[in-house]
Amino acid sequence: KVAIKGIERELICPACKELFTHPLILPCQHNICHKCVKEILFAFEDSFADGGSESSNQSSPRIRISASSMDRIDRINRSGRKRNSLTPRSTLFPCPSCQRDIDLGERGINGLFRNFTLETIVERYRQAARAAIAIMCDFCKPPPQESTKSCMDCSASYCNECFKIHHPWGTVKAQHEYVGPTTNFRPKILMCPEHEMERVNMYCEICRRPVCHLCKLGGGHANHRVTTMSTAYKTLKEKLSKDIEYLISKESQVKAHITQLDLLLKETECNSERAKQEASQSFEKLYHVLEEKKSAALRAIETSKNIRLEKLQTQVEEYQGLLENNGLVGYAQEVLKETDPSCFVQTAKQLHVRIQKATESLRSFRPAAETTFEDFVVDTAKQEDILGDLSFHSNGLEIPEISEEQSRMYSKALISWECPGMTDSADVYVLEYHKLNKEEESVTWQKTEVCGKSKVLSDLDDDSSYAFRVRGYKGSICSPWSREVIMRTPPAPVFSFLFDDKCGYNNEHLQLNPRRTSVESRAGFPLLLGSERLQVGCYTTLDYIIGDTGIAKGKHFWAFRVEAYSYLVKVGVVPSNKIQKLFHNTHDVTSPRYEQDSGHDSGSEDAFFDSSQPCTLVTLGMKKFFIPATPAAPKDPASRILPLPSCLGICLDCDRGRVGFYDAGHMKCLYECEVDCSGLMYPAFALMGGAAVHLEEAVTAKYREYHDDI
Q: H-helix or E-strand containing 428?
């Protein structure tokens, strides 16, 4: 048997770091003191009330909430996961053991089971620890006597005399269960915390907790798999016994592992010292290179200074010689005293040349050397960037990859990445991005640190391409940069609207979701009744729906998704003065050749059909995008049919009077045409047959920010 003193760390509460007192079992199967749960929840509620966690740090001197737990409380507070009057009451609790946010349900603490088994073990440990310290009688007059037994029914301890007085022979109390002196009193029957009058008699295998028959019949465990308490007791006890026997039988293997770990500890110490020495040597080499460069630069500056000073000094001496009674001027004055012409001419010719040079130097004075040292400025910008990225590279830290499928460019930019192996995930990631500009010679990366695996950016320019890359950090170790991914922002600011459920909305053929962000056409019985009178050809009306907000000026962009199964969808814009005509147009057909008696199939009706429409629309359907037949469009019909993008976008420029249809996934324009923007413009959609359109959700600051935590 394992000695009682060897299990002390199993009996320590993870919150207060003391022996458990009335431990409760959390839904994650970890234990925590009843008092600690209350104190953490008080701190948790205070963080919601105060908008932060400053008050919770000072909630109790007994509890020790770790920094990670406080960070999780702040994260949940910022994420907005608060209950309101319309939602069921639910209590979130940050478990200090598994570092997860646990939902305690509507009953909160009252819905948790008390771990009587752990409480009994803690009591045995306390008794073994305090040895001779006695438990005193609860009913003796001062001074109290040492108790000899404890009554489990009365939850009290007695000496021999008091026990006889309070449990007289022949009474009901005489039948009470008594044990040796203890302070741990547990009920004989475990009752359900949700149904206080019912005893637990089943075990929920999904939630891994005891339940009563009312929980199974109509409570939160109605659809869960349960078993009888005796079966669960037998099964779990057998599994636990086998696992304990296995661990005991592997005692020699455990000792060998401990010996190996001791060697690894020593090896780690030695390797760390060696790594420190190698790092120091690497930096010493850098210091040596810098010192050499510094000395060479200083020598070059000193040499240039001496040469310049020498030139300037020579120039000073020359100009001093021009002064009166000095040098050349004095010599010239003496020559002028010569009266013999032949002797004067012989000497004056050379002197005149020197005088002319001096005169010219006076007229065009220029210093013999520059005083500035601009040529000797050391540019260390690139080297500083390289030194800023100087860190340890590890082969064990995997290179993250930016996921183009999960990343989005819309109202804001959502950049998501993942690690392929998921073996050695980083503690923090650094995301860098820069705008692609052909005119700029040097690239300046903008940097941001991210704790998760996605980041929302809101400072990007419209109609621009950006390059993104990411790397992971684990302590001082970093991974190499990921592959650069180029993404393009929308051509204009994002325009937000919902489907209008009032203006012309046909609720018999169209169905909106509660948020009015999705519309679906129901090709059911009403459509068959409408087509009953048809004998030849296809004559079916389109069901139109517009946005609830109009555009008066400026340039705007919105995106949406068309389900792949959609038979026919038309998308575009409609002016306010033609909305009534749109909803009362009785000649909307699946083909422009709708006249049953036209007598030909020349296609000449196409031009008439397009020009007669009250709004500018393009046709989608059967996983295809159809470019309208215009003079500028290709004559071959097959070249006007493109694959349907997963996400479509429309860009309306009211100032220029143009509307463009985009592949919103790559921000590529598929088709653009002129449009009359004299009135208020509304987004327009038309559906026929089985079809559905979903408006693209705007990327907010909290979009997927806490996805990993949840």
A: strand 428-435
Burial class (CB in 10 A: 0-12, 13-18, 19+), 429: buried
Which helix (H) or strand (E) segment is 271 a member of?
A: helix 251-320
Of these ranges, 58-72, 152-166, 170-184, 297-311, the one predicted with the greatest mean pLDDT is 297-311
- DSSP labels, 618-651: EEEETTEEEPP--TTS-SSGGGGEEEPPSSEEEE
Q: Which residue matches tokens 């009211």?
A: 654
Residues 6+ apart with CB under 8 A from 594: 537, 538, 539, 587
312 CA to centre of own chain: 65
CA dihedral 685, 690, 696, 697 (to 10 degrees): 120
Task: Specify the CATH architecture of the domain 1-45+89-131.
Answer: 2-Layer Sandwich (3.30)
- The angle formed by the CA atoms of residues 76, 82 and 86, to the nearest 5 degrees, is 160
For 463-506, what is each residue's pLDDT tens digit?
999 999 998 888 777 888 899 999 999 999 999 999 998 888 88
Phi and psi angles of residue 628, each rounded to the nearest 5 degrees, phi first: -60, 150
Tokens standing for 355? 């005088």
User: What is the CATH T-level fold of the domain 492-531+539-585+613-709, as seen in this structure?
Assistant: Jelly Rolls (2.60.120)
- Tracing tokens 């020009």 back to the chain, one arrives at 611
Q: How many helices (H) and strands (E) in the chain?
A: 13, 34
**pLDDT tens-digit series, residues 410-446:** 989 999 998 876 555 688 899 999 999 877 667 788 9
Contact by Cβ (8 Å): 500, 548: yes
Task: Name 402's bridge partners.
Answer: 417
* Angstrom distance (rounded) from CA 76 to CA 44: 10
Contacts of 372 (CB under 8 A, 6+ apart): none
CB 662 within 8 A of CB 672: no
pLDDT: which is higher, 65 or 425: 425
| Tokens 């559905």, located at residue | 692
Residue 407 DSSP symbol: -
Kindly report the backbone phi and psi dihedral angles of residue 124, in degrees, each rounded to the nearest multiple of 5, phi listed first: -65, -40
Between CA 469 and CA 448 the distance in angstroms is 11
Q: Give the global pTM.
A: 0.48
Q: Which two tokens stand for residue 414?
A: 């959502």
The answer on pLDDT for 591 being more than 50 is: no
Residue 109 one-letter amino acid: I
Top-confidence residue, 92 or 532: 92
Q: What are the boundaries of each domain within the chain? A: 1-45+89-131, 231-362, 413-488, 492-531+539-585+613-709
- Residue 639 is predicted with a pLDDT of 82
Stated as kind and residue range, the H or E segment containing 332 is: helix 327-335
Fold of domain 413-488: Immunoglobulin-like (2.60.40)
Report helix, strand or coil for 348.
helix
Q: Is 506 exposed, middle or buried (0-12, 13-18, 19+ CB in 10 A)?
A: middle
Asked if residue 166 lies in contact with residue 158, where contact means CB atoms within 8 angstroms, the answer is yes
Q: Which of 90-94, 199-203, 328-332, 635-639 has the highest mean pLDDT?
A: 199-203
pLDDT for the residue 694? 95
| Residue with the two structure tokens 């810098």 | 290
C-beta separation of 75 from 99 below 8 A: no
123-147 pLDDT per residue, tens: 777 776 655 567 788 888 888 887 8
Q: What is the full DSSP assignment across 436-501? A: --TT-SS---EEEEESSSEEEE--PPTT-EEEEEEEEEETTEEPPPPPPEEEE--SSPBPP--B-S
| Diameter over CA atoms, the chain | 166
What is the distance between the alpha carbons of residues 640 and 625, in angstroms, rounded to a whole number?
8
pLDDT of residue 695: 95
Tokens representing 416 are 């998501």
Task: Please state, in angstroms and rounded to a whole number, the distance separating the CA atoms of residues 226 and 201.
Answer: 10
Angle at 81 between CA 80 and CA 84, to 5 degrees: 100
d(CA 149, CA 147): 6
